[in-house]
Design brief:
4 helices, about 80 residues, mainly alpha, about 75% helix
């Protein structure tokens, strides 16, 4: 069971994930990832590593919904602490 503050935290994310703006951001990031993922466009090794970092950040954002859902499920499965 989760406390009210944590429940509000997850509710806020669920609300955001249902918003059209969130869906639009995901689409834009997927399109950007396709362009960034082009090795042919890399100027040098530094640019390659920069692009790798950009792709890592994009992947984290695109996976945020699944990460939050998994964290919420885990929080709901944890037994309530019994106060002595």
């Amino acid at each position: 069971m989760i406390d009210k503050e944590l429940e509000q935290y997850y509710d806020n994310y669920r609300t955001m994930f249902m918003d059209a703006g969130w869906k639009q951001l995901q689409q834009d990031l997927m399109q950007n990832a396709t362009v960034i993922n082009s090795v042919e466009a890399c100027k040098d090794g530094n640019d390659l590593y920069f692009r790798k970092g950009q792709l890592a950040v994009i992947a984290n954002i695109l996976n945020l919904e699944a990460q939050i859902k998994a964290a919420e499920e885990q929080a709901n499965e944890e037994p309530e602490e019994v106060e002595a």
